[in-house]
Amino acid sequence: MVPAQLDVKGTQILAKTLFKELRGSGYTPNQILGLSTELIDLVTKDLKSGQEPHLQAVDDPPGEGWRAAL
């Protein structure tokens, strides 16, 4: 469920829920920060390219991207 446009409150709830789930699954704050940084990088690349969002990170070779930090 990803609505086309989330309101501010909905975005805050989603972020808190994701954070709690990741922490509850054993991810460290540094790992979550690495994931967040990677997400920001992907969004920035999409905005700069002017293209539809893509899932390039899924195609990254093992050991690259956010997965390496986890």
Helix content: 55-70%
pLDDT below 50 for ≥5 consecutive residues: which ranges?
none
Span of the ends, CA to CA: 25 Å
- Major sheet, described briefly? none
Q: How many distinct beta strands?
A: 0
Give the CA-based shape. flat
Task: Write the element-wise H/E pattern from the N-terminal end onward.
Answer: HHHH
Helix count, DSSP H or I runs of 4 or more residues: 4
How much strand?
under 5%
Structure described in brief:
The chain contains 4 helices and no strands.
Describe the structure.
- The chain has 70 residues and is mainly alpha-helical.
- It has a domain at 28-70.
- The protein has 4 helices and no strands.
- The chain has helices at 8-24, 29-49, 56-59, 66-69.
Summarize the SSE layout with pairings:
Layout: H1 8-24, H2 29-49, H3 56-59, H4 66-69
Properties at a glance:
mainly alpha; flat; 66% helix; 70 residues
